[in-house]
Amino acid sequence: MNDLLKLALKHLSLALSILMIMLGCHSQPSATLSLGQAAHGLMLNDGLRIYSAATELGFNFRLLARAQDLNMVKAVEILLYSPAGPLRYLFSLEEALAGIRVGYARAGRCYYQINLLDAESQNLYTYESYLDKAPLNAISPLDLKVGARSLRVASEGISALVMHPLDIDGNVSHDEIHVLIEQPGGNILEKDIHAERLVAWTYLPSDDHTGLMNITAYTAQARGERNEVDILPNVVNDFILSKLNDPISTSPRQTWQLAFEAFEDVLANPLESYATLSIQAQSEFQQAMSPWYLSLNRPIIDNHFSLSIPSAPYAGSYQLKAYAGRSFRESNLSSHPHIPLIPWRWLSLDPAMLEVGPIIDTQGALVDDGTSLTLELLKESPAFQQQSAPRLTVNLTLNQGMALWQVPKVGASYLRLRLLDHERILFLPSAQNPLKLAP
Amino acid sequence: MNPNDPMFDDRNPQDENTFVVSLKRLVWLLALIILIPLSVMVLQGISQLFRISQQASTQLNALNSISLRKADEGMLTWLPDNPDSPRKMSDFEREQLSHDYLLAYEELNYALLSEDISGLESHFQEGALADVLNLLQAKGFESRRSQEKSQFITWDHQLELYFYSPDGITLALRDSYHYAQAFVLEADILHMRFAKRSMDVLLNLNDGNWRIHHWRILQEESLPTPDRKPLRLDNIYGINYIARSAPFNDLWPKFNPAEVEEDFARIQGLGLNTVRFFIPFPAPEGLFEHLPNFLALAERYELRLIPTLFDTYTCYCLEDMPKAMAYLDRLLPYLNHPSVLIVDVKNEADSDFSYRGKNRVRTFLTYILRYVRSYSDKPAFVGLINLDEKLIAESDAISLHHYDYAKNLPKRIAEAKSYQKPILLEEFGFHTQIDKWPDPHTRRDQAIYYQDIFAITSTSGLGWLVWTLYDLPEGSMPGGREVERHLGILDSEARAKEVIQVLRGHIVEASWLERTRKYLWLSRPILLSLIFLLMLGLALSFFSKHRK
Description:
The complex is a heterodimer of chains A (439) and B (548). Chain A is mainly beta. Chain A contains 4 helices and 31 strands. Mean pLDDT of chain A is 78; it is low at 7-45. Chain B has 548 residues and is of the alpha/beta class. Chains A and B meet through β4, β5 and β7 of A and α3, β2, β3, β4 and β5 of B.
């Protein structure tokens, strides 16, 4: 009785499916395969067919069979060979007759294999074909990827907008994308692109003006957030170097005040920052005894850069060079002596007691406490023997511009005083050389 | 008087003995005093050495870092880049990309087999990751039901760079690769598809790793069954060649061109025209060095060749496909040599059915057969002990191996003829091991067997290859079977056995006794049983009389 009922149900299901197909209620078939073709030695007539279709929701399969063919089929197996690996679905014959939906979402071509298991022989009859699933329309939000986030004006475009607009299943859609590029100068560029080989892209052209370039992209049904690219000035082409105080004295407290400003690119766009200034300063003539050299690199901030250079230790003229981008500036820095003279006197002659000071700078102030005074006792006159080694060298520090020193007897005849950039030679008092106490 | 003369020695021997003993004791004491500290020092030195080596080993281990997992080389080649790509790719970037891309597929296959998804996010993202995870979830459901696994092996990736973004983090390429996707249940394969696939791939560089972002299949083509190539095998008379000095696997590593030339000359001299030889997989040392010479020698002696590939290989594993295809690709130019008659892709493949799975062997060899038949100029078949319908369907010819009674051969030939393809009796042979228990043969038995076989092949119009040229006293034999050493038509000194007369067309008259002699071994157990029964009867009668 049960068998009779099953048979009746099977035939009813078959009749219904045929009716549905005839009424056009089935999915539009993209491939129709006669079962007899691919099967190895399958003795079925072409009354047994498979309908397959790629739909938005996946792949639909339906088996259409005549009653006499159904007894042979026990189960229906569908294999999909996806980019990620094989997928396998197993269905009963009733399901296959009513229509099977396999939720496969990936766009592109997918090869499938349908196996029908023969109930009696347990043999598998195999059919192979493929379905092409097209991507759907792109959905919001669109993801605008901007390669380089900044560009320089008047430069070749090296930034690009890259997009892969996705449909609801995560497939890259073929929808046309309308791209709007609003440049800082006010120009609005429009371009239509679409994904090719899974990627839609376009160069982002630079502008002659600095500022933000706004990029908007949308399709007929999807939009994304606006993206931006900074259009930056090009490299420095011009700038101004100003000396705020020159010359200065050689006092350690003194600095040359320099100002670098009005950095501009070739299109006279001011460079607010993004550039580096290299500065070199050195003695005009390399002095063997007292060379001076300065080298530094500093970033430009707010199109301005101030620099304080401590005074060179010796009075003279110094060469200054400044580089930024393609631009170069040159100037001279000069300094004069800090102390006009070194006053001194002998407080006593035997023992010889020397008082140095008060030492007053060019502005009439006492030199700083702690300033070093160097005293050298010499056998020969340095006027004739420049290189003669001192018998004794002593460093004293000034206190309120003064220093006191008892000269030891070491057989020297001369005393050399060195203070900052000043030098003075004294005769030492002796029996043969009776000197007055003060100059 | 000689004071040294012991006759004149007036010392007391007792005293002398005491002195000697004392001296000995002293020497021993000194030796002990020196040796004990010395041995302690040596032991200490050894222990120090051991301690230092342990310390060094620990430090060395501590410095061991986990080396980067590297993809197999030779799996990927680059086609010329799209010249309109906004950015050129440096060699370093290309190498890094190639490496990451191949590792992605390795990780995918690992995840499919193991269902361990922890590594996937390092290689896939967005749509590609969704595909992989969806597949694993679906597969997981199925595998719980049926304990099956799936596999996805790719090889021969040919990449064409289409787009490389100016910022160097997005890349679109077209990949054309071969793949095998399969469902595996226990050892056997349920379903498998081999195909060449063309696919667009989008990759993103994140955290220093290239990840597959999206993919889309464009086209696939599986290897169709090629048309049958015209082939005549009825005029094949040849030998399965095993070198005497380097039998079986030793042929290529110990290749001796002088010996091969001498053998080829001898084979030609015997009136034979074909040589079947074996190429193991993986390719043995010396193969590609000596194969050209081997082919040239065959050409010189006008011998046709039947190379038998994948010898000794019994895994039929999908993961071996890349190496197997590389092996085939490298061999293809040699297979096209004019001396090559037909390619045998595997020797006695059906013997692996039982433990590797019938479907596995069939699907693996089906692909190999189609590949060889498609990409070489030569026909191909597979060596079989028992005919296999599926493998024969993929072959240009049918190979029969027959070591059974000659009388059973016609039935097998009739069965093979039903496939309507050229048939070659690729192997037959008869040993001459006289002490083989329980089946000893004489050389005359061998000659009679050959004569019987030739009578059948001649009436059936079959070509044949005998196993083998020489007896093989040296080297190891397959399965350690001693009988393999006695299958030659010449003995180990290259002296002709009686079978050579048969090859030369002389008829060996076999008496009924000779034809039944091989069954005489049965007489030995029967005789022994009779003797045993007789003895038992005598003993019983003796005991029964004694009791009375």
